[in-house]
Write a structure and sequence with these properties.
Layout (H helix, E strand, L loop, with lengths): L3 E7 L14 H12 L3 E9 L8 E5 L2 E8 L1 H20 L10 H18 L8 E5 L6 H7 L5 E5 L7 H4 L5 H8 L4 E4 L2 H13 L4 E2 L5 E3 L2 E7 L6 H8 L2 H14 L3 E6 L8 H14 L7 E6 L8 H21 L7 E4 L5 H10 L2 E4 L8 H9 L7 E5 L12 E3 L4 H12 L3 H17 L2 H12 L18
Parallel strand pairs: 1-2, 1-5, 2-4, 5-6, 6-7, 7-10, 11-12, 11-14, 12-13, 14-15, 15-16
Antiparallel strand pairs: 3-4, 8-9, 9-10
Helix pairs in contact: 2-3, 8-12, 9-12, 10-11, 10-14, 12-13, 13-15
Length: 473
Amino acid sequence: MSRLIVISNRVSVPQAAGVPGAQGGLAVALSSALREHRGIWFGWSGQETEEFTGHLNMQRNEDVTTATVDLEPQDIEEYYNGYANRTLWPLFHYRIDLTEYDRNFSEGYERVNARFADSVLPLIEPDDLVWVHDYHLLPFGSILRQKGVRNRIGLFLHTPWPPARLLVSLPLHEQLVSSMLEYDVIGFQTDEWLGSFLHYVEREMGLTVDEDGSIDYNGRKIIARAFPIGIDYTEFVEGANSDEANVAHDRLRASIRGRKMLIGVDRLDYSKGLGERFESFGRFLSDNPDQAGNVVLLQIAPPSREDVASYQQIREDLERRTGHINGAHADVGFVPIRYVNRGYSRRELAGFYRAADIGLVTPLRDGMNLVAKEYVAAQSPENPGVLILSQFAGAALQLTDALLVNPHSVEHVSETIKRALEMPLAERRQRHEKLLASVQNEDVVHWREQFIAALFGEAGSLTAERPTHDHLV
């Protein structure tokens, strides 16, 4: 039986079953797959070291082996804060105005990918399957190939993939994509992102894409396919019915004193459209003065990437907008926006979701957005809330019975909030039933099994001559 080697930027150490809020759904799914395949999960520890040594910190928790390495401060600045989060992340979310091109960033990105490859190489056995995750490690498979690895290697991208007209703004974009074609399987969240990738390889690289989506490249066929990710439905529902979730639900409902409540849960990031969301809610309050004092927006936004200047600006902007809207619509016993900069356990969040009449999930661009699916799973079928979902989230292609909105249109979102608050119970139940079926049937286990099945497929010609790629600088 082949082992599974998972490679990602960060590693989530598995926790014992029943530990409240121990892991996110993706970590649960990967841990389960690693247990089934006697695997290893490798990545950055999140810690700094004065000098990179490649020393592996090996641990075994809940039958899953993890292997982590520390990075130098320069590595973190150039690879993580730089190329990953100031170059690729904004570009992949269509924010070319925020994309920074710096040769030091790209050098650091390639250097860390090579260091990761050197570190994990001794752990890879001939029959292992290697599953690489996300935009931090796009050239990782190519580097392994250059070091002689002929195993089946797959990549799954959790972010959007930009249209060719945007990607070509990236210096040496073709070298980056060529390095990705050393994978055997490349997975995307949606058919839209897959289509953008296939359009690029046809238009910019002159490659042939077969009807099944496979790419002819250097005597091999690469599988490129959409694998929409889901939540761990069973685990999440179990948590949503826990005492911790019930306490969180009751505490929140008591605090809003019979008012209607909207909830947003997002990492503090410009791709989430939080500023536009606040403005839309403020517009709703202005356009519906009869609702003033009766509707509350709870926005939970844990800070992220605080070393990147654009994220510091987001926080300052949201605090300003919150003060402006609350100043205009608050009363001595009522504040319309509750803006919270901290995280909560997944069980507490499940209780908060169930307490909310509306789930407001309005990113400007998102690979999938699992909050939308968690909100649906947390609802009571007898009296479910309404999901308002951005048409630019990957989840919109599956959750078509949500109220889909254009997050850039303040008026559209405001009007949709009103529609959701006035929606009859029968329609809420009907929509929720269809949404729940999608969330339940296309869960994270289904996603994982589909990808691993593709990775187990017939191997391409790994003995074919492979090109040496130029550096990404």
